[in-house]
Amino acid sequence: MIDGATTTVKVAHVRLCHSRMLFVRVYPRETQEMVFDAHDNAFAFFGGACARGIYDNMKTAVDTIFVGRDRAYNRRFQQMCGYYLVDPVACTPASGWEKGQVENQVGVVRRRFFVPRPKFKSYAELNAWLEDRCVAWAKANPHQELRDRTIWEVFQDERASLVPYVGPFDGFHAVPASVSKTCLVRFDKNRYSVDGRAVGRPVEIRAYAERVEFWQDGKIVGQHARAFGRDKAIYDPLHYIPVLARKPGALRNGAPFRDWDLPSAIRRVQRKLGKVPNGDRQMVQILSMIPIDGLDAVDSACAEALNEGVPAASVVINILARHREPPPPLTIDTPAALRLTCEPVADCNRYDSLRRPNHGKITGAGRDEPAEALRHEGRLR
């Protein structure tokens, strides 16, 4: 039971052959990006990866089955194995004994973890609970061969032999798509919003197990938590700011803005601007500052404008601009060893003294001679 509804889930099973340490994780589907996510969470849980992996001939990993154990693995699956330094080995079709540990684990997990039917609000809550159950199971059950030790104790010794965990693999499933005039992209029977400036050009969808990203020209133009089901429209109101610049009236009744939970100060400014002419356009100008300064900064600027009694777009933008200015430089005290004993005095009259003759003589002419004598002799240059 997930969020009050009976749900059929797909459970990824992983098990270390030596210690028999198990790991299970639940997903709504058995797609390639979810297989990648299961590997990453399993290796992070174990603290490392195994040097050799025994796999069933699942379509998310194997493209073609040849004679014997020869397989044509999926390109992305090979990239994942190369990233974690895992050597994949495929089982013979219809030979469950070749991966008997996992085959037996399926029944054990079903009986021990899913009977009676568990109830959770989300997949994340269920997976966290399953991870705790895996640890509790390993600590409470003895190893099948080393009967005097538990599975958890053997697993602690095996960790030193694992390939070090290097972080998550960028395991996404990429497909091209087009953007509709309403800034929506259809993927997996649902629609997601993207930046209004991306309309009219194709995007690349990168689907992960828990999120969806939309890329265009090497930049992310949209990102959402992944939705399952069908015919859902997932909006990000900030994606429609460029559209509001042309149609500010859509802010009142547009579908992307109906459930927009704005902070209290911004909401109060919106109510006040709704009573003045050109108020929608001023509100759009304020909202357009959120991608630049952040939601909290805009909310603080609106609160300051309300306190001053001038809830206008020009005032809010001015407050944000002032807060954006760098702080004044720090005053550094001069050490005593570097202080001047006789500080210079700024006196411009010293320059005027160079224009006045010094008692009829020119200083620096080689020797002091009257100026008149130098002029007559032509020696003054």
Question: What keywords describe this structure?
Answer:
nucleic acid binding; 14 helices; three-stranded mixed β-sheet; RNaseH_sf; 381 residues; disordered C terminus; 35% helix; alpha+beta; Nucleotidyltransferase, domain 5
Kindly describe this structure.
Pfam families: Mu-transpos_C_2. InterPro entries: IstA-like_C, RNaseH-like_sf, RNaseH_sf. This is Integrase, catalytic region. GO terms for molecular function: nucleic acid binding. By secondary structure, the chain is an alpha+beta fold. The protein has 4 domains: 155 residues, Nucleotidyltransferase, domain 5 (2-Layer Sandwich), CATH 3.30.420; 62 residues, no CATH class; 65 residues, no CATH class; 34 residues, no CATH class. 35% of the residues lie in helices and 17% in strands. The chain contains 14 helices and 15 strands. The strands form 6 sheets. It has a 4-stranded antiparallel β-sheet with strand order 9-12-13-14, with no helix packed on it. The protein is extended. The termini are far apart. The C terminus is likely disordered.
Strand order of the largest sheet: 9-12-13-14
Overall form: extended
> Using only CA atoms, what is the Rg?
36 Å
Helix and strand content put the structural class at: alpha+beta
- H-E order: EEHEEEEHEHHHEEEEEEEEHHHHHHHHH
Total individual domains? 4
Note poorly predicted spans: 365-369, 376-381
DSSP helix fraction: 25-40%
Give the CATH H-level superfamily of the largest domain: Ribonuclease H-like superfamily/Ribonuclease H
Number of strands: 15
CATH architecture of the largest domain: 2-Layer Sandwich
Which fold does the CATH topology of the largest domain refer to? Nucleotidyltransferase, domain 5
Mean pLDDT reading: 86
Sheet with most strands: 4 strands, antiparallel
**N→C terminal distance:** 105 Å
- Strand % is 15-25%
Domain Transposase for insertion sequence element IS21-like C-terminal: 164-236
Region (Disordered): 353-381
Organism: Sagittula stellata (strain ATCC 700073 / DSM 11524 / E-37)
GO molecular function, one term: nucleic acid binding
